[in-house]
Specification:
Length: 376
């Protein structure tokens, strides 16, 4: 679907989870009813403050994405009321993609029905693995069985656009284990699958465990083999890989994430949420108490704002655009000796190029950021 210049995405960060997974570096708090109720009130205030700023004047929401954290840590009726408030505040396309992330072990069919009824039309479950033995190593609660139950319940209440997130290269996970996970996942017939290579992020329990030799870091070659298996199995099952970590059935590519990768504009609400509007990047305070204090004081909870230069915008367009399998227009490359640089990267097997576009090869996808730097 094409996007008009007036279209914009809205991201809502719900900063709560019941537990923190060992690999997770997102800003979040452990879910507690009183803090979640206070957050709900603060977020409604932020919506009203942002509305007064007229950031979105003349714009239409083409996508709304509730991420986290685990949005469904919040009661379903609170998520529903937030979505209704957003749609009453800003014009929203009749065909807007409206996603909510959910933990499959902590949603029931009633909650899902409330979310579908409120207008959410895409759901993204953090499955992570389809082998129970992987969960303790990730610090992940729940059971694989929960994922199947949640997917079937979501479908029963009307969700047809269902994403499942997986991680590969988990501690102790073999290629055979991963193949089993991909095959099991496919039996659930999702419309979209995201597969992320496990990375070690600073200040996580996983980073501490690796530093203390309690676990080993991911094996890069094994992860590449897992990626190759993923691409093959998902292609055979009718999924197209459209971004480094994302695969979709026809017409199910995530419109909200495509906006990020194709230079579109978006507004973020909630603690730590990022925005890109009118050539500026800005982010909200990544601290629930400070965020709440700010909005209660009638101030935007913004922590920094950077006006991007033309060169910075071009660089971002290249870095993000090359993540997409369709690549970027040749004309968007600004390197002084563009054609020579492209030819060199093609000769090294990192790029494919034709008259109009350049795109990473499967080998080049391993070095996406390095390739982008060389083309800038
Ligand atoms: S459920 Fe998701 S957001 Fe929450 S701690 Fe685990 S990985 Fe992080």
């Amino acid at each position: 679907m094409s996007r008009s210049e007036a279209d914009i995405g809205l991201y809502v960060h719900i900063p709560f989870c019941r537990h923190r997974c060992h690999f997770c570096a997102f800003y979040l708090e452990i879910a507690q009813p009183d803090r979640m109720a206070a957050f709900h009130t603060a977020l409604t205030r932020e919506i009203s403050l942002v509305y007064r700023q007229a950031f979105l004047h003349g714009r239409t929401l083409q996508s709304i994405y509730f991420g986290g954290g685990t949005p469904t840590a919040l009661p379903a009726d609170q998520l529903a009321s937030l979505l209704r408030l957003i749609r009453a505040t800003w014009p929203t396309s009749a065909t807007a993609e409206i996603t909510v992330e959910a933990h499959p072990s902590f949603v029931n069919q009633h909650d899902l029905a409330v979310l579908a009824d409120a207008g959410f039309n895409r759901i993204s479950f953090g499955a992570e693995s389809m082998a129970d033995k992987d969960f303790p190593a990730m610090g992940r609660v729940g059971q694989v069985h929960d994922t199947g139950i949640a997917v079937h319940a979501a479908r029963r209440v009307g969700f047809s656009n269902i994403n499942l997130d997986l991680m590969y290269g988990l501690p102790g996970q073999s290629l055979r284990d991963w193949t089993h996970t991909v095959e099991s996942l496919l039996t659930l017939s999702p419309s979209h699958i995201s597969c992320y290579a496990l990375t070690i992020e600073e200040d996580t329990r996983l980073a501490q465990d690796v530093a203390r030799n309690l676990t080993v870091p991911p094996d890069e070659q094994l992860q590449l083999d897992m990626e190759a298996v993923t691409e093959q199995f998902l292609a055979e099952a009718g999924f197209s890989r459209y971004e480094i970590s994302n695969y979709a059935k026809l017409d199910y590519a995530c419109r909200h994430n495509l906006l990020y990768w194709s230079g579109g504009e978006y507004l973020g609400l909630g603690p730590s949420a990022q925005s890109y509007l009118q050539g500026s990047r800005f982010g909200n305070i990544a601290d629930l108490e400070a965020y709440t204090a700010c909005v209660n004081d009638d101030r935007l909870p913004m922590t920094d704002r950077t006006v991007l230069s033309t060169a910075e915008r071009q660089r971002d367009a290249l870095v993000f655009g090359l993540r997409l399998l369709r690549g970027v227009p040749r004309t968007s490359i600004t390197a002084a000796e563009r054609d020579r640089q492209i030819d060199e990267l093609v000769a090294k097997g990192l790029l494919d190029a034709d008259h109009d576009r350049v795109r990473l090869t499967s080998f080049g996808r391993r070095y996406a950021d390095t390739v982008a730097e060389q083309l800038f």
